[in-house]
Every structure is written in C-alpha cells, then in structure tokens.
Amino acid sequence: MQKTFAKKWKELDPSSSATVNILPSLEDAFEYVRNLSGGSSTEGKDGDKVDAFITGSIHLVGRA
C-alpha cells in the first residue's frame, strides 16, 4: 500500500523536489528524520529547517 501511495504522491507533482521514502517501521522513519536534522528537531545539517508532516491514525500521530 505504501508503494502505491508513494507513486501517486510523485505523480501529483513530478517537478517537486520532495523526497518520498518508504521505511519498514515507524521507528526507522523517526530515525531517518532525526538524521536529516543532524540530531536537532529544527535544523538540517546545512542549517536548513527540517519539517516532518505526519498523518495517519491517532496511534501513529500519538507516538510521534
């Protein structure tokens, strides 16, 4: 299902520079975002701001 959603997301805006990743678990996703931010919750490795948009069930959002 996630692969289908990722494909659709890319089709909606093919010129976007957004990166779409499919990861095996919620914990892996959190770790990926933390690595993007260099361990900080607000700035990326190059000083750019890093935002994460989390959607889904109350269980998913609650864990985030």
Task: Write a structural description.
- By secondary structure, this protein is mainly alpha-helical.
- The protein has helices at residues 2-12, 26-36, 58-63.
- The radius of gyration is 13 Å and the shape is globular.
- The two termini are 21 Å apart.
Kindly summarize this structure in a few lines.
44% of the residues lie in helices and 0% in strands.
Q: Descriptors for this entry?
A:
mainly alpha, globular
Question: How is the topology of this model organized?
Answer:
Blueprint: H1 2-12, H2 26-36, H3 58-63
Global morphology: globular
- The overall pLDDT average reads 78
Count of beta strands? 0
Terminus-to-terminus distance:
21 Å
What is the rounded Rg? Answer: 13 Å
Oligomeric state of shown chains: single chain
Q: Structural class, please?
A: mainly alpha
What is the tally of helical segments? 3
Strand content: under 5%
Major sheet: none
Helix-strand string = HHH
Runs with pLDDT <50, length 5+?
A: none
- Helical proportion? 40-55%
